[in-house]
C-alpha cells in the first residue's frame, strides 16, 4: 500500500468514507456540479478524490486543492444523500489537511491569515477597520469610486467584490455587549444572544431587531460580554486550531450560566456553534463534554421562536414575498419549516415558494470573494428563480445570504426589491401591531 | 505533460474546456453507481449533435471505444470504460429545447435531469411519468439507454412507453432521426429498438417525450405487516380484485429501519414488511379503490393501513422509498443490488427462497422492490475488504437470478444488463435469439466501438469474475 498523503492528525476514518456508495444521487443537488457538470466538482467526485489522496493514489496538489476549494461547503449533498455521508465533516477535514500540507501562493496565504486570524477574532481591530470603512462609505468616496468604473478598469473582479461590501451601521452593536435586554411584559425565558463578529458592525440593526423580537416573546436577553467570533469561516478554511481557540472563548463566555437557549440570527454561525463537539472529538477531548452541553443550547432564532408558542400579535406587512433557504440552516441544521411557519403568521404577507430555494445563492462565507466567478454564476441562476416568483420582498435568515442577494437585486432590472431577514419582518410586524 | 494525439483531435472537434485527459481528472470517470476500476483515455463534453458526430469520428479513426455517459447513476456498469476509450459525457447537453403543452410533448437534450423536466412543467399541471429512484440526479439520456422504470411503472409503463422520437449519432458519425412527434410513423420501430440498447447502437442526442397531466387526486396508503408472506400474498390479491394502483411497492423490516434512519418518514420500525400503495385518478374513484384495498390488506392480516393525510406526508414516504438503495450505506460498507423479475403471483415463494440464500451464505439481504411488477431488488450486503464475502455475494446473486428465471421471470427489470448481467443473458435467451441481436447490433455498430463489452455475452470472462472485479475494492 502506498503511503497516505493525509497526516494522521484529525484524519477521517474509513467508516466515514465508506458510507458513500457512489450512487450519485447528490450530483444535481450540488451547486458547482449543476454549473460545471463534471465529476471532479461533484460531492461524489470530491469524496473519491479525498479517498485517493488519503490512500496515496492522488497527490495533495493543485488539482485536488482546486476542486476542494471550489466546494461551497453548503452541504446540500447531505440533504440529498440517503446514506448519511457526513460530507461537511469530510470536506472540512480535507481542508485542514490542505491548510497544513499545501503551500498556497504568497498573496493568498497572507490574505487568508490577515482576515481569518488577524482580523475576525479581534473585536478592537474589527472596530478600527469598521470605523475606517464607514468613514470611506460616508464620505461618498466609495460611491464615487464605484460609479467611476475605476475599479473595473483596474480589475473587474475587484469591482464585483467591492459591490458586495456591507453598509457599516453606526452605532456598532459592540457597545451592546455585556448588556441585558428585559422582556416585554412578563418574563418567560432567559436567553443569551450570540452577536457574531462582523455582524456587530454590518448587521447592528438586524441584531437590535432580533433583541426586540425576542423581548416581544417574553425573553430576557443577556448579551455575554466576552463572546467572540464563532470560528465558522476558520473551520471552513481548515484552520481548526484557530477555530478551537475561538470555540473555547465562547464556551467560557456562555457556559457561565444555564440559559434557556443561546440564540443566533446567523445560520452560518449557528451551524458551527452546534457542531463545536466535532472540534473536540480528537483534539482537546477534555472539552468535549462542555462543547456538547453548549451546543445543545444553541438555537437559530427562527427555530427558537417556532418552538415556543410565539407571540402572534403581529401587525400587517403587506408584500409579495419569497424565502431563500440559507444552506447552513436548511442543510446543516435541517431547519426548513420554522422560518416559513413564522412568515405565514404575518398578516398581509403573501409567501410564494421559490423553486430551487435549497440551492446555494453563492454567498457561502467568504466564497463570493475568493471564488467570485462561480459565486456570480450561482447568484445569476438564483436571481432568475427569484424573478419567476415576482416577489417584491426577498427573505432569508443569514447575514451572508442577505449581502449576496442584495448585490443580486442591486444589479438587477428591478433594484427596488427589498431583501430582509425573517426576524426583521417579525420586528416590523410587532411594531405595526395594533 | 505531452497532449496525446487523440486528445488533440478531440479538442479540435470540440474545444479545450470540453476535454479531460489528465490522469487526476480521468480517475473520476473510472466508476458509475456500480463501480469499476479502469479510467478512460479521455472524457469529452460535447455541446451539440455536430460535436458528438465529430467526436465519434475521431474515436473511429483511432479505433478507440466510445462510452456514452449521463450522470453516472446506473447500477449495471453501463457508463464504465471497460476497455478504456473515450467517455462521451452528455451532461452538458442539458437544455429543454421545446415544451408543447397542447400536444403534451417535450423535446429535450439527453443531459436534462429527469426530475428537472417534471419541475419545468409542474406549474402547468403536467409531469414526465417514468420515475426511477435516482430521478433527482439521473439524466433522460441515461433513462433512454437503460429503458428505466420506477415505482409508477406499474400503471404507466417504462421509458419506452413515453419516448416518441430520437435523434441518434451512429458510430460512423452519421445522424439519424427515428420515430416522430406524434403517433404512429410507418416502418420499423427503430425508436423502440434503440431505447434500452444501453449505448451500444448509437448516441442519443435529442429525445421527444410524452408529458402527462398530473392526476386530479392522489392517495398514498401504507399497509403494515407482521409477516413478509402476508404482505406478498396481498400483492396478487389486490390486482386480482381488478385494481391497478399507480404504484405498489414493498419493503422488508431490515430496509425499513435503514430508510427510517435516513428520512424519518414515519415508517414503523418493528414491522416485518410494508406495502406502499399509491392510487391516482378521479377523486371518487380513488376513494372507492382505497376502501377496497384497505379491505384486501385487512383480509391478509395487515396490522394497520395508514393513509397519508397531507402532501408532505406522501412526499416523505416516497422520499424514504426512493432513497432506499442509498440508505443501505448505513447498514453495510458494500452491497450488491439485484434486479430480478418474476410473475407477481410467485412473490411469496421467491421471498422464501431469498431468505434461504441469506441463511446459507450468512449474508444479510434486504428487500425493497416494485411488488406490483414482480420486479425484485434484493440488496446483498457484504464487506468488500473480505474476499470470501465478495465471493459469497456473487454466488448468492447468481442463485437468486437463477431462481427468477426458473419461476418464469427475467434477470433484469430496469437497471440494464451492462457489464453485470451480460454473461447471464443465455439464461433467458436461446442462441438463436442472441444471434439475431448480434446481427442487429452489427448494422448499427459494425466495428463494435460503441460501449463494447456490454449487454451481449462476450464469452471472454465468466460473469462471476467480472462482477468480483467491479465489486471488490
Please explain how this structure is put together.
- Chain A is α/β, with parallel strands linked by helices.
- Chain A is 51% helix and 8% strand.
- Chain A is built from 25 helices and nine strands.
- In chain A, strand 8 (393-396), helix 24 and strand 9 form a beta-alpha-beta unit.
- Chain A has a five-stranded mixed beta sheet with strand order 1-3-2-4-5.
- Chain A folds into four domains: 14-101, Fumarate Reductase Iron-sulfur Protein, Chain B, domain 2; 106-162, no CATH class; 173-307, Up-down Bundle (Glutathione S-transferase Yfyf (Class Pi), Chain A, domain 2); 319-431, Rossmann fold (3-Layer(aba) Sandwich).
- Chain B folds into four domains: 5-89, Uridine Diphospho-n-acetylenolpyruvylglucosamine Reductase, domain 2 (2-Layer Sandwich); 96-213, Uridine Diphospho-n-acetylenolpyruvylglucosamine Reductase, domain 3; 217-327, Alpha-Beta Plaits; 332-415, Alpha-Beta Plaits (2-Layer Sandwich), CATH 3.30.70.
- Chain B contains 16 helices and 18 strands.
- Chain B has helices at residues 5-13, 23-26, 49-61, 114-122, 140-146, 153-156, 190-194, 228-240, 253-263, 283-299, 311-322, 324-327, 347-361, 387-406, 431-444, 463-471, and strands at 19-20, 42-44, 66-69, 86-89, 96-100, 105-108, 126-127, 163-169, 175-179, 203-210, 212-213, 217-225, 247-252, 273-281, 304-307, 334-337, 365-370, 378-382.
- A seven-stranded antiparallel beta sheet of chain B has the order 15-12-14-13-17-18-16, sandwiched between helices. A five-stranded antiparallel beta sheet of chain B has the order 5-6-10-8-9.
- In chain B, a hairpin with a 7-residue loop joins strand 17 (365-370) and strand 18 (378-382).
- Chain B is globular and about 70 Å long.
- Classes of the chains: A alpha/beta (434), B alpha+beta (473).
- The A-B interface holds A 15, 18-29, 37-40, 45, 48-49, 52, 57-59, 63-64, 80-85, 355 and B 20, 22, 24-25, 27-29, 31-33, 35, 43, 45, 71-73, 89, 91-92, 94, 111, 113, 115-116, 119, 134, 136-138, 261-263, 323-330, 333-335.
